[in-house]
Amino acid sequence: KPKPNPNNAKVALVQLSCGSDKAENIERARSKVAEAAAAGAKLVSLPECWNSPYATSAFPEYAEVVPGVGGAADPAASPSAAAIIAMAKENNIFLVGGSVPERDEATGKIYNTCIVVDPDGNIVARHRKVHLFDIDVPGGITFKESDTLSPGESATMFDTPMGKVGVGICYDIRFPELSMLMRSRGAVLLLFPGAFNMTTGPRHWELLARARAVDNQCFVAVTSPARVPGADYQAWGHSSVVDPWGEVVSTTEHEEDIVYADVNLSMVPEIRQAIPVSMQKRPDIYELQDRQA
Q1: Residues 54-59: contacts with CB within 8 Å, 24+ apart?
Q2: What backbone torsions phi and psi does residue 11 show, to the nearest 5 degrees?
Q3: Among 6-15, 64-73, 271-280, where is mean pLDDT lowest?
Q4: What's the whole-number average pLDDT of the chain?
Q5: Gyration radius (Cα) of the chain, Å
Q6: Contact assessment for residue 62 and residue 9, using Cβ atoms and an 8 Å cutoff
Q7: How far apart are CA 213 and CA 65, in angstroms?
Q8: Long-range pairs for 213-216 at CB < 8 Å and ≥24 separation?
Q9: pLDDT at 238
Q10: From CA 72, how far away is CA 84, in angstroms rounded?
Q11: For residue 2, is pLDDT > 60?
C-alpha cells in the first residue's frame, strides 16, 4: 500500500447557514464537519461567527469562555469550544473553528476568537481577531466591531503534518503585513474565516484572497457563512481556496455548501524557487519587523 504524500491534503471549507439559535448552529456545524471528514478532508474550517448572528449587539449575548492552547472546555461554560474539540477528535481531523464571540474570564473583555484543534482533541492555537472591523462606506455599510469587541495581540500559527498554517479572521486579511509575518514564520497555507458583506464581498473577497496568495506564494483559504435570507447582516459567501499562483482552485456561490480542494503543498517551494522574491528583497530600503519573535 503506498504511503500518503504529506504534501497533499484534502481541505474542506464549511459554508454554514448560521441562525440565532446557538444550540441549533452547533448541531448544524457538527453535521457538516462530519460530512466533510467522511468525504476525506483532513483539514476542515468553519466560518467566522458561526454560532451567533454577526452583530455587535449579539457578541456579548452569545459570548462564552474559550480556552487557550492546551486547555479544556467545560460544555456548560463553553458549548461551542467543547463542540469544536469533540468534532475534531470524533472525525480525526484538524478543525479550524471559524470564530465565536469569546468572553475573557479575567478581564470581561469580548473577543472574536478562533481555536484550532488537532485530531487528538488538543487545542493547538487560539487566534483573537487582531484588526477590528470598523468601517463606514457611504451608501454601503457602517459597522463598528470595537463597540463591543477588543482586539487580539498576536499572530497565530499551528503545525500540521503538511506544514505550518497561519490563521487570521476576516478583516485581518486586509493587512498584508500580518500575512507576510506568518509567511516569514514558515506558513505554507493561510486560513481566514470571514464574513464579508454585500458591499465589500463582491469587490474585495476574491481579490484579497488572491493577493495574499500571490504576495506570500502560498495557499489561501477563505471560509464564509452562507447567506441567510432575512438576516440583518447579509454575508457574501463564496468560500474559496486559492493556490500560490493566485488561481482560484475551488469556490461556491452563497448558499450553504462545503468547498473541497486537494491542496498540493509541493507547489509552494517550487513557486518560491521559480520566482524567488523572498531572496530579492531590499532590507536597505524597507523591512518587515516581527515584534514578537
Answers
A1: 54/18, 54/195, 54/225, 54/233, 54/235, 55/232, 55/233, 56/143, 56/144, 56/145, 56/147, 56/148, 56/149, 57/148, 58/20, 58/101, 59/101, 59/110, 59/112, 59/145, 59/148, 59/149
A2: -110, 145
A3: 6-15
A4: 96
A5: 18
A6: no
A7: 33
A8: 213/242, 213/243, 213/244, 213/245, 213/246, 214/244, 214/245, 214/246, 215/176, 215/179, 215/180, 215/183, 216/179, 216/180, 216/182, 216/183, 216/187, 216/190
A9: 98
A10: 11
A11: no
Stated pTM of the model? 0.96
Summarize pLDDT for 248-269 with one digit per residue, the tens.
999 999 999 999 999 999 999 9
137 vs 153: CA distance, rounded Å: 27
In the numeric block, the cell 492555537 is attached to 125
> Cβ neighbours of residue 259 under 8 Å, at least 6 residues apart?
12, 13, 15, 223, 239, 240, 241, 250, 251, 252
- Active site residues per annotation: 48, 129, 170
CA angle 264, 270, 275 (to 5 degrees): 130
Which of the four pLDDT bands, split at 50, 70 and 90, describes residue 187?
very high
Instruction: Report residue 54's pLDDT band, with 50, 70 and 90 as the boundaries.
Output: very high
Give the separation between CA 213 and CA 220, rounded to whole angstroms: 6
The CA angle 244-246-247, to the nearest 5 degrees, is: 105
Separation CA 88–CA 117 (nearest Å) = 6
